[in-house]
Design goal:
The structure holds two protein chains of two kinds. Chain A is of the alpha/beta class. Chain A has 18 helices and 17 strands. Chain B has two domains: 98 residues, Urease, subunit C, domain 1; 291 residues, Metal-dependent hydrolases (TIM Barrel, Alpha-Beta Barrel). The N terminus and C terminus of chain B are likely disordered. Classes of the chains: A alpha/beta, B alpha/beta.
Chain lengths: 482, 474
């Protein structure tokens, strides 16, 4: 929503830019912004699980220009396609990690918080380099898309685990920013963005040390969130009054409140982590007070209040980072029954959500080893979740929740060519990912080396050109960096 | 030993749902279903003396009749309480029970924007333990780190219900203030105030801002009413709103205080800004200013015999409650502790030993008086027809050290039953066994090395290798 006169200039400006860009781009033709046009591929003799349609026992998938050109049992193989004989392999849509820190590299954008336990000298309390909102952790204007680091090593390991798309969630602070859907395609940052912004991220667990700056308690964080939302609502009101009445006093522009308008206007949802029934009810209450569209993330015990979530039609981004027994616990001490129950019953949550008809998608929850993503989803399958539903919750369901089901999440004609080829059923313990295709680019996933796998590493190399592909690479060499 | 025991008690934590579903509710009155009768008990009404061998009829969660003989409707649940003692559920007017929001927002000097009600934790095991000690209602408050803390919540200990289900519907909301050592205490950083004078200044400053805030809104509403379409609404301020509510008499100020001088200061500030201090919390030196407290109408909510644990607690005497009562001050005993809360009946008994209160006066310190303090005495605090059926059935007189609650009812439903408790412990032990077994199986499975023969789809790894370079072409 544009409340500001200065903003009204921007469509004109961008129109000019588009025109200019188009003029320059014309001779380049079909070349993609990400650089090299991936070759045409035909994956043949594969078992294909399109998710949106019944499984094809022996089928072909043709990929061209980053899209799926054809899929089926009787598909003609184009003459210009590289044929991949996938006998014995299974083709799934690329997996989506529905709430992830992947894509930012090692260090994310600076987070305004102090090192634990170090009181700042009085002079630095104001931290003039940071705006007042940042000091309190209110940074809704940050967008994951602008913070990406395509060289991040974690991208490769995620891809090695079959993850082709992530919802990149900015971290740090309370209103941590806006989330973007990112294809792990090995290209430049701009080419990776599937959709942005997708949602606002609010982290209620973020707080300072006791005795430090406000807020230093969960109560304080929650109060700050409520006050900020009230301010954002008022911002909308005062600008409407101003715009409608020439006699009105001009309100002040505020970057944070301006950027929150899609949230308070219900045009974008808020993703808020909440695990226990009490936490979930708290964020449901918050959402209804401020009429926010809500997505719950984490949801470790969401299964136990499934009816409430169903009634409110709130989707869950379910973490598969299951609780572990406390490390270095007193060997004499018995684990509390409540903790034991949470731990043992954690994999049952997905089945409960499915049974209650709640829309949910799996997320890795920041697992150290991305390969545990599938492994832990298979524990949910063992605990009663329907296999097909489990695959859906890794592919088409997140695509639907994020409003991109027409682009990704299933193997269909004209959808983005995000695919994985596995050596067997996704949920078998010894299945591994052999190839990943992201935006039509093929990545060979190196056979898992047990040692490296344990260390949480994975590898994949973009395969842009072998043998008959050299002249193309030369072309690429002469390309201007757009 | 102590630790072992602690762990065992902790294990009770898991019974949230069990308690609600399995044992306890079984013999409770069905919602809407008519009646419960507690028969042949010694009834300590607290409001109008003791009934030697009397009965209580409960209908729809409310006390319907109290007397030597009451109607026993068809289908009523009858609890035989011969040789038992029934008193109103204990009301703890100051605790930090069932919170998971940090208790203190210990950063700023004024944190009235924080709300305990947003952070009620219905799984806090202390709810069950206090319930087992006869507590049925508690005011759970923000801590005392700041001159002005957050807003509190009054809850009933309906163990097994969710956060909303615990709230005491219709209870007047409160706001915590703190005087003395705690708010002026230097923490990990320098923070104003550092003295009692500074505490007063912070409070006066905050109320001054709240006045301006109210004026801004009044002015706005006036202009809107006059048809002005260009007027901008003032910013809603979550910090000042609770203070404005105190000024309008809509919110009760609970003031943590120890010393007589700081209580006098707070009453002067209240007079200046035109509100009443609802209660001084702890108020160990209140006996020094009994007349002033009585004149102001402030409740003194104190401890029976806690003192000397910090510099401002040296002038405390165990006669505080009795002396104040005799001077016409409303006195309650609060726990401020999940342990103390489990024997508030004994804390009340101590005030008979020190100062010679009567039995009824002593019992009122933990029932009717805190109900009056929290302005919920129309609902709870004594055994009178029309009040909520929040009752404790003891095996001995509650002012005896041998008294142990046998059953505790809230809204006519049995939320604690000492016999059922034993059953639940057994059931929980069985559940633990099952869970531990399942856990062991899962972990064994994960530890198992993968055998090459396990591959079900791919028998021979080499056969499925697809050398793309051989087959690719354009």
């Amino acid at each position: 929503m544009n409340f500001l006169p200065m903003r009204s200039a921007s469509p004109l400006l961008s129109a000019c830019l588009v025109l200019a860009a188009a003029t320059f781009m014309l001779p380049v033709g079909a070349r993609r912004a990400g650089g090299e046009e991936p070759p045409v591929y035909a994956i043949t003799n594969a078992k294909v699980v399109p998710v949106s349609a019944p499984t094809i026992e022996r089928g072909t998938v043709v990929i061209r220009r980053g899209l799926i050109e054809a899929v089926g049992a009787d598909v003609a193989i184009p003459g210009d396609a590289r044929v991949i004989d996938a006998t014995g392999l299974v083709v799934y849509p690329g997996l989506i990690d529905a709430f992830s820190a992947t894509g930012f590299g090692e260090d994310q954008a600076p987070v305004p918080s102090r090192v634990r336990g170090t009181p700042p000298p009085a002079a630095s309390r104001e931290q003039p380099s940071q705006s007042p909102e940042e000091r309190q952790g209110v940074m809704p204007y940050r967008q994951a898309a602008d913070l990406l680091n395509p060289a991040g090593k974690e991208i490769e390991s995620a891809r090695g685990a079959g993850i082709t798309t992530v919802l990149a969630v900015p971290r740090g602070g309370i209103f941590t920013g806006q989330c973007s859907l990112v294809d792990l395609n090995g290209g430049a940052a701009g080419s990776m963005i599937l959709k942005t912004p997708v949602a606002f991220s609010i982290d209620l667990s973020s707080r300072r040390e006791y005795g430090g700056d406000y807020p230093s308690s969960p109560m304080g964080v929650f109060a700050l969130v409520k006050q900020t939302l009230l301010d954002a609502q008022r911002y909308s009101t005062v600008w409407s009054i101003y715009n409608a009445h020439p006699g009105a006093r001009r309100p002040e522009y505020n970057r944070a409140l301006e950027s929150l308008q899609p949230l308070v206007g219900r045009r974008l949802p808020a993703i808020i982590p909440a695990d226990s029934p009490t936490e979930i009810q708290r964020v449901l209450e918050l959402a209804s007070t401020f009429r926010l569209s809500l997505i719950v993330a984490g949801g470790a015990e969401s299964g136990s209040i499934a009816p409430v979530l169903r009634e409110r039609n709130v989707p869950v981004l379910l973490s598969v980072k299951y609780p572990e027994p406390e490390k270095n616990a007193d060997p004499e001490a018995r684990e509390e029954l409540s903790a034991l129950r949470k731990r043992v019953k954690a994999p049952e949550c997905a089945a409960l959500l499915a049974k209650a008809g709640i829309r949910f998608a799996f997320q890795s929850g920041g697992l150290a080893n991305p390969k545990d993503f599938i492994r832990n989803v298979s524990r949910a399958v063992e605990a009663g979740l329907d296999r097909e539903k489990a695959i859906r919750a890794l592919t088409l369901d997140p695509a639907e929740i994020f409003g991109v089901a027409d682009r990704v999440g299933s193997i269909e004609k004209n959808k983005t060519a995000n695919l994985i080829l596995t050596t067997g059923d996704l949920f078998n313990a010894d299945t591994h990912v052999k190839y990943a295709f992201v935006d039509g680019r093929k990545f060979d996933i190196v056979e898992p080396d047990p040692q490296r796998e344990r260390d949480g590493e994975a590898s994949g190399t973009p395969d842009l050109g072998s043998a008959g592909d050299r002249h193309k690479q030369q072309d690429a060499g002469g390309e201007q960096p757009w | 030993m102590v630790k072992r025991r602690y762990m065992r008690i902790k294990a009770v934590a898991g019974l949230t749902v069990l308690m609600a579903v399995c044992g306890v509710r079984a013999d409770a009155a069905e919602p809407g279903a008519s009646a419960v009768v507690i028969k042949d008990a010694t009834i300590l009404t607290v409001s109008h003396g003791t009934i030697a061998r009397g009965s209580i009829l409960i209908r729809d969660g409310k006390i319907s009749e109290v007397g030597q003989a009451v109607d026993v409707p068809d289908g009523a649940l009858v609890i035989d309480a011969a040789a038992r003692f029934v008193m109103p559920g204990i009301i703890d007017p100051h605790s930090h029970l069932a919170q998971n929001g940090g208790v203190n927002e210990g950063s700023l000097a004024v944190t009235s924007m924080t709300s305990v009600e947003d952070f009620i934790d219905p799984t806090d095991i202390d709810i069950y333990r206090e319930l087992a000690g006869g507590v049925t209602t508690t005011a759970t408050l923000h801590g005392s780190a700041n001159p002005i803390g957050g807003t509190g919540a009054v809850i009933k200990l309906r163990w097994g219900q969710d956060a909303k289900g615990l709230l005491f519907a219709g209870a007047r909301p409160g706001l915590k203030f703190a005087l003395g050592e705690n708010p002026k205490h230097k923490r990990t950083q320098e923070r104003y105030p550092g003295t009692r004078m500074g505490v007063e200044d912070v409070i006066r400053q905050a109320f001054t801002e709240a006045r301006i805030y109210m004026q801004d809104w009044d002015e706005y509403n006036k202009r809107v009413a006059a048809g002005d379409k260009t007027v901008m609404p003032p910013r809603r301020n979550l910090t000042l709103e609770p203070l404005a509510q105190v000024l309008r008499g809509e919110r009760l100020p609970f003031v943590h205080a120890y010393r007589a001088d700081e209580m006098l200061m707070m009453m002067r500030v209240a007079d200046e800004f035109g509100f009443k201090v609802n209660s001084f919390e702890h108020a160990l030196e209140a006996y020094k200013i009994a007349n002033e407290l009585a004149a102001h109408g402030a409740v003194a909510s104190t401890f029976s015999d806690w003192w000397a644990y910090k510099v401002e607690a040296y002038d405390a005497i165990p006669y505080n409650a009795a002396l104040l009562t005799r001077k016409g001050v409303m006195v309650s005993i609060n726990s401020d502790s999940a342990e103390e809360a489990r024997h508030l009946n004994q804390e009340a008994a101590k005030c008979m030993k020190y100062g010679g209160l009567t039995e009824e006066e002593a019992l009122r310190l933990v029932t009717l008086n805190p109900a009056r303090q929290l302005k919920i005495d129309d609902r709870v605090g004594s055994i009178d027809p029309g009040k909520d059926a929040d009752l404790v059935i003891y095996n001995h007189h509650p002012l005896s050290v041998y008294a142990v609650p046998q059953k505790v009812l809230i809204d006519g439903q049995v939320y604690f039953d000492i016999q059922k408790d034993l059953v639940i412990r057994k059931r929980m032990a069985e559940e633990r066994k099952t869970l531990e077994e399942k856990d062991r199986q899962t972990r064994d499975k994960e530890r198992q090395p993968r055998k090459p023969g396990d591959r079900d789809t791919v028998k021979d790894k080499n056969a499925t290798e697809v050398p793309p370079q051989g087959k690719e072409g354009e």
